[in-house]
Amino acid sequence: MGSRCQSQMRTPMWQRYHNAQQSKERESIMNQRIIYSTDDGGVAVIVPAPECELTIEQIAAKDVPAGKPYQIVDVADIPTDRTFRSAWETEIPTPDGHGMGQDAWYAAQQSDVVS
Question: Is the pTM of this model over 0.85?
């Protein structure tokens, strides 16, 4: 039993710190939503997937349609009652960014890998 315990590797301190930081970042991302106006005047809400390893900004760039302004908001800013969701409206006077769309985002990722 003693040899089994001795043979197990301990996680280095830097790795534990890094893992804790990633966990905090994931928790933070899960408390955020990305919103943008749809072409028909509605509001789209993007909910990050828990297993996604992208930053909230990368998710927005990829998943918001090309050229659309978006805003990153706290989950508490999204109404929980979805009864009248089709009547939601939003104005984004100071966007956090503009979407690239999936095709452009993936193409940019490929060119970064090749470069």
Answer: no
Is residue 17 in a domain? Answer: no
Contact partners, residue 50, CB within 8 Å, separation at least 6: 26, 30
57 domain residue, yes or no:
yes
Is the pLDDT reported for residue 3 higher than 60?
A: no
- What is the 8-class DSSP label of residue 44? E
> pLDDT for 22-48, tens place per residue?
555 556 778 999 999 999 888 999 999
82 lies in which domain range?
A: 31-114
How far is the C-alpha of 62 from the C-alpha of 68, rounded, in Å? 11
Number of folded domains that form the chain: 1
Q: Is residue 78 part of a domain?
A: yes
